[in-house]
Amino acid sequence: MRNRQIGIDIGGTGMKAGIVENGRLLQKIEEKVLANGSADEVVDQVKGLILRLGLDDISGIGIGIPGLVNPVTGVVYDVMNIPAWTELDLKGLLEKELGKPVALNNDANCFAAAAFTLRTLRERTSLLGVTIGTGMGTGIIWEGKLISGLHGGAGEFGLIEYRDQNIEYYASGRFFENVYGLNGLEVYQKAMQGDQRSLDMYAELGFHFGNAVKTLLYALDINYIILGGSVSAAWPLFREATLQQVGDFAYRQARESLVIETVQEMDAGIIGAAALVTL
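C-alpha cells predicted for ROK family protein:
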C-alpha cells in the first residue's frame, strides 16, 4: 500500500480534507461545518468528505479537532462550534463504518505534527509547534513522537498563570485588544507602515512571548520552535524583542542553540492531521 493518508482539519467554521502522500497534499476539498447539526449529522458530514476523496490506497485517516479529545480512545469531549459533539466516540464510529485506522488529536498537536512533517531535518527529531492566533497552542514532538498527554492537552503552556492572567492573554493575537483595546489586524497594518506606536506594541508582545519561550525551554530543554497561526506572519515585528528577552535564559548552551522559524503553509492542518496516522 502506498504511504497515503486522509487528513481532516476541523476548524471553527470550516472543515477541510485532503489526501496526503509523504507529507505532500495531493487533493483537497472543503465545506462549511454543520455547526448546529446533530452529532450524527456532523459525523455523516465527515464521512461524506472521506468518501468523496476515496479510500483506495489509503493507510489511515487523521482528524484534527479544535477541542478536547482523548488521542488514545478517540473520544471527543468538547469541540468548538460543534456543541452536539460531547463524549462522542468518533474514532470507533469511523473505524467501524470505514474499515480504516483513525487517529485524532487537537489542532495544536496537529500543527506540531505538520511542522515536523514539513520542516524538520533528519537531525531535528524533537521540536515544539506553537500556534499564535486568538490564543496560544503548543504541540510537542519528542524524538519523532507526538506527546499528547491523556486528553491531548500536553503542552498547553498558554494557559499557565502569568501576571494577572495567563500567558496567552499577553502573548497571542488578543494582546492588542486585551491590553490596549485595539484591533490586532489594524495594529499589524500600521506597524507594517512604520507606525512607531504600533511597532512599540509589537515589541511589548515580543517581551511577553520571550517569557513564554523561556517557560517552554525550562520545561522541555528543546531548541527548535516552529511558529504558526495568524500572528506568526508578524514574527519579524517581534522577533528581536523576543530573542532579547530570551537572552537572560540561565543555560547559555540552550539559548545559543535556539532556533525559531515560521511555517506559513495554508494547509498545515490537513498535513498535520494526516501525519497523526504515523506519529
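The mean pLDDT is 92.
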